[in-house]
User: What shape does this take?
Amino acid sequence: MPHPLHTALVVLLPLAGFVLLGLFGKRFGSKAGLVGVLVLALTTIFASMTAGGYFFSNGTVSGVFRPLKDLSFTWLAFSPNIKIEIGTLLDPISAMMIVVVSFVSLMVHLFSLGYMKGEERLHAYYAYLSLFTFSMLGLVLSSNIFQIYMFWELVGVSSYLLIGFYFQKPSAVAAAKKAFIVTRFADLGFLIGILVLSYYAETLDFGTLIQRLTDTQSSYSVGITAGSFMGISALTWGLVLVFAGGAGKSAMFPLHIWLPDAMEGPTPVSALIHAATMVVAGVFLVARLFPLYAFNEVALKVVTMTGLISAMFAAVIACTQTDIKRVLAYSTMSQIGYMMFALGLGAKGEYGLGYTASLFHLFTHAFFKSLLFLGAGAIIHLVHSNDMKDMGGLRKFMPITHISFLVACLAIAGIPPFAGFFSKEEILSTAYHDSFIFYLLLLLTSGLTAFYMFRLYFSIFWRREAHLHGHHGEGTMTMKLPLIVLMLCAVLAGFVPFGHFVSYNGQPLEMHVDLLFSIAPVLIALAGIGLAGWLYKSENDRPHSLATAMGGFYQAAYRKFYIDELYLFVTKKILFNLVGRPAAWIDRHIVNGAMNGLASVTGSISSAIKGLQSGKLQQYILYFFAGIALLTLLLIYRFASMPV
Amino acid sequence: MNAVPLTHIILLSTALFFTGMYGLLTRRNMITMLMSVELILNSVNINFVAFNKYLYPKQLEGVFFTVFIIAIAAAEAAVAIAIIINLYRTHQSIDVEDASELKY
Amino acid sequence: MNLSLLVILPLITTLLVLLARGGGQVKAIALTGATLQLLLALFLLYAFGKERSAGDHSAMLFQANYSWFAPLHIYFHTGVDGISVAMILLTAFVVLAGVLVSWDTSFQTKEFFFLLVFLSAGAYGFFISLDLFTLFFFLEVAVIPKFLLIGIWGSGKKEYSAMKLALMLMAGSALVFTGLAGIYFKAGGSAHSFDMMQLAGGLIPVKVQLFFFPFVFIGFGIFTALFPFHTWVPDGHSSAPTAASMFLAGISMKLGGYGCLRVATFLMPDAAQHYAPWIIALSTIAIIYGAFATMMQTDLKYINAYSSVSHCGFVLLGIGMLTRTSVTGAVMQMVSHGLMTALFFAAIGMLYSRTHTRMVAQLGGLLKIMPFISTIFILAGLCSLGLPGLSGFAAEMTVFAGAWQQPSTAYRFATILACASIVVTAVYILRATGQSVLGPVTDSHYEQLPDAKWNEKLAGILLMAGILAIGLAPFWLQQLVSPGAEQIIQQAVKSVTIK
Assistant: This one.
C-alpha cells in the first residue's frame, strides 16, 4: 500500500543525491558514479511502488482513476487565494511519467559509469544528473501550476549545466546558453499564461483551476470567456501562452532551434534529457491541463498544427543531416510533433483516442529513443566522432549495440511487433478519423522517419568495411546492460494495455489494432527502409546524385531551412545592434550626458560670475554703495507710500 | 539768535561724506583710504549731532552715538593700521591693488 | 528589545576601531562588531516573531521615543515593522560579508573599516526611524562615508565617480528634505510634526501631497536608481572597492526603496495613487532599458551595476502597482537583490584581485582554476536570472503576481514587459558567465591563481545562505513583510474608496 511519503521520497531521493554529490562529491572520487546509481536505483524502486500502488490498488474508485493529492504546504502565498502550494499529485499520467523518468534515468546513470569513466569532474556530472532527475520528477508530480513552472525552470537549468558540462569547449557553452535562452523565451509565455489563467480562476491548484474554468455556470468561467484582448478570449490567450512554454521545452517549430545544438552535451545526457524526458514536458503540460484545452477549440487547433508542422519539418531535415546525434535530435522533434498532434485531436473522435495515443507514444518513444541515444553514445565512444562519414561497417565491432540499435530503428519506424508500431498506429488512426489530409501527411512523415532512421543505421553499421585499430571494444558491462534492458522494453512496451491505465476521463479505454488499417503505414515504412537500404547499404554515388537532383530543396533542408540564420539575424542584428547598443549608447551619452551637462552648466555659470570676486577692495566698496543706493531708491520710490 | 538751518549742516555732512567716498574709491594708498573712512564716519557724526539738536533737543541719544562712533573709529584705526603694517611687511607696499590674494 | 542598540553597537565598534593599534586589531574589532550586528539582527527577527505570535498586532513594535530637539518637535522615535526587520537583516548580512571580503585591505586600514562600520550605523538608524528628521539625519550619515570609500580606496576614475555619486545622492537628499519640510509645515493643523505615525493618519491634505510627493519620491528614487537618475550607479559601482560596491548596491540602493515606500507611499497615499502611472512607466523603462544596456557591457562590474538598475526597477514597479502582493514583492526583491548583488560584487572582487581584470573578454575558464569563486559567481548569476530555489525567483514572481492584480490594460502591458526582461537577463547573465568563468582558459598565467581564502569563502557562504533561506522557503519572508505592506496599502486603498 503506497504511502504519501513514498511519493515524496521519489522526488526527495534524487535531491538528496544532488546535495550529497554536490557538496561532498570530491570525497567520493571515482565512486561518485556508484553513489548516483544507488540513489537512482532506490528512486526507481519507490517510483515503481508508487505507480504500481496507484494503478493496481488505491488509484481507482469503482474502476475510474482519480487524482490523489498529497502533502500540500504553502510555499508562497501571493494572496489568500493565489498561493503556491507544494504538493504531489498522482494521477495516471504522473504515475506513468515517474516510472518512465526514473527508469530511463537509472539506465542513463548506469550507462554513464562506463561512458564517463576517467572524467575528472565525475561527481559534478552525477550531481547534475541527480538535479535533473529531481526536477523532472518534481515537474511531473506537481499539484500546482506554479510549482510546475518552478520545476520547469529547474529542468531548464540542469539541462543548461549538462549541455555545458564540457565547459571548456566554447561550442558547448554556446549551445547551453542557446538552449536556456530559447526555452526561457518560451517560458515567458508560460508565465504570462499562468498569470492570465490564475487571475480569472483565482487559484493555482491544478484541480481547482480545471474545475472552475470548465464549469460553464461558474463566475470564473464566465469571466475568462468574457475577458478578451485583441478580440481573442482570455482563456484562449492563457492556454496558447502556456502552450508556448510547452512548445519551447518540447522543441516544437519554431522554437526548436536549441535542440540540435544541445547535442553538444555528453551523449547519455542527450538520451535522458533531450530524448526521453525533458523534451516531452511540453506534451505532459498540455496533457495535464487537457480538460481545459478540450474546452477551447482554438488552443487545440494551435496544438495540432504545431505538432503536425514540427513532425514534418523535422523529418525532412533529419534526412539530410550527417551528425548522428543531430539526426536523432530532429527525429525526437518529429516524434514529439506526433504526440502534440495527437493530443490536439484528443478531444475528438472515439473516447478521446488521441489523448491516450499521444501519451502512449510518449511512453514507447522514451524507451526506443533513449536506446538510440545510448547506442549512439556507445558508437561515439568507440569512433570518437559524431559524423556518420567516419563510420561504417561497425556491426562486427559492436554486436550488442548493433542489434539494439536495429531494434530501436524498427521500433521508431513503426514495424510490428515493436513498440513504436502500436503507438504510432493509434496516432494515425486518430488522424484518419479527423481528416484525411492529416492522415496522408502523417503517413508520408512516417515513411520519412523510416527512411532517415535506416539511412542512419546503414551508414553506421554497413556501407563499408571498417578498419579500426587499437579500439577498446564495445564498452563495459555497465554500458551494455542498459542497452539490453532498453531493447527489451522497446520490443515489449507496445504490448502494455496502455488505454487501461491512461485515458482522457480515467475510464479504461480499449485500444485495438485493426490489421487492415495497419497495412498502409507498414508498407510505407518498409518502402522507406528499402529506399534507405538501396542508397546506403553499400558505398555508391546514388545518394550524392540524388542530393544534386534535389538541388535547392536539399540545400535548404541541409541548412535546416535557415531558421538558425533567421534567429541569429533577429538577435544579433536587431536586438543587439538596434536595441542593446543604442540603449547603452543613449545611457552613456544622453542620460549620463544630461547629468554631466547639468554639472558642467553649473560649473560654467560659476566661472562666469567668479570675476565679481576680484580681490580689489575698492570694487567691493563700489558694489556695496551701489547696492545701498539702489535699496534707498527702491525704498523711497516703491515703498514710500506704505505706512512705516 | 539766528540759528543755522539744518540744511546747511546736512549739506556740510554730505559734502564731507562724498569727499570721503571719493577718497576711498580713488586712492590706492591704504593710509589715505583709512583717512577717507574717518571722514565718512565724521560726516555721520555730524548728522547724528545735528538731528539730535533739531529733532529731539531734550534728549542726548544722538550725542552718545557720536561718542560711540568716535571710540569705535579709534579702535578701528588701531586695527586697520596694524593690518596695514602687516601687509607692508609681506608685500613691501601699502598699495591696495597689490593685496588681491582674496580674489577667486 | 531596545532598537537603539542597533545604532549604538556600530558606533561603539567605530570608536574601538579608532582606538585600536595595528591593522590586525582593527580587523578583529570590525569583524567582531559585524558578527554581533548579525546576531543582534537575528535576535531582532526572533523577538519580532515572538511578539507578533504573542498577539501584538500594532503597526510598529519596540517603539521608543526620546525628545531630541523639542522646540522643532524633533524626536528620536524608533520602531520596526516586518519591512524594517527584513531590511535590518539584509544590512547585517551585507556588512559582515563586506568586512570579510575586505580582510586584505592594507592601505589606511583603520580609516577604511571605520567608514565601513560607520555607514552601517547610518543604515540601521535609517531603517528604525519613525521620525522624518531622524530618518533624514541617518540617510545623510550613510551618504558621506561612501564618498570617501570610493574616493580613497577606489580604482579607475575614482575621483570623478565619487564626486558624481556624492553630488547625485546629495541632490536626492535635497529633494527629500524639501519634501519633508513641506510635509512638516503643510500637514494639517499647526502640529508641525515629523512623526510618521502621526502623519500617516491622513493628516496631509491632498493638495500638499500632490505637490510634495514627487520631491520625496524622486529624491529617494535617485538612491534606488530611478530612471533617468540612475547614472551614478554604473560609475559609482565600477570605481568603488569591493566592500563599498557591496554596501552601495546591497544597502544604499535599498535606503531609497525603503524611503519610497515608507515615506512617500505610506504618508502620501493619494499622491501615490495619482502618480502611479508615472512610477510604473519609469520603472518599466528602467527594467527593460537597464537590461538591454547591460547586454552591451563588457566590464563585469558594469554588467552588475546596470543589472542593478534593471532589478531595482522591479522594486519601484512593485511599489507603483500598489497592491499588497506587489509591495510585498518589492520588499522581497530589495532583500533578495541586496544579497544577490553583494554576492555578485564579492565574486567579481575576488576574481579581479587575482586576475587584475574585469573585462569579460579577457577572462575565461576560471571554473577549473577557482571552483569556489566561479561557483558563487554562477550561483549569483542564476539568482539574478530568477532560478527557482534562489531568492530572485520568489521575489520577482511576487512582484509579477501582485502587478497582475491591477486589471488595467496599460499596467498589464507594463507587467508583461517587466516579465520579458527576465529573458534579457538570461541573455546577459549567461553571456557573462559563459565567457568569464566557462570556456577555455584565456591566459596561461591564470593557471597558478589560488582559489578563495577562508574569509572569502565565509563571505560567499554567508550571502549564499541568505539567498537560499529566501529561495527555498520564501514564506517566512513573505509572512514577515506582508502585514507591513498591508498597512501601507490600506492607506492607498482607503484614499481610492474615498474618491
Notes: The mean pLDDT of chain B is 89. The domain at 6-99 of chain B is CATH 1.10.287.3510 (Helix Hairpins). The two ends of chain B are 59 Å apart (CA to CA).
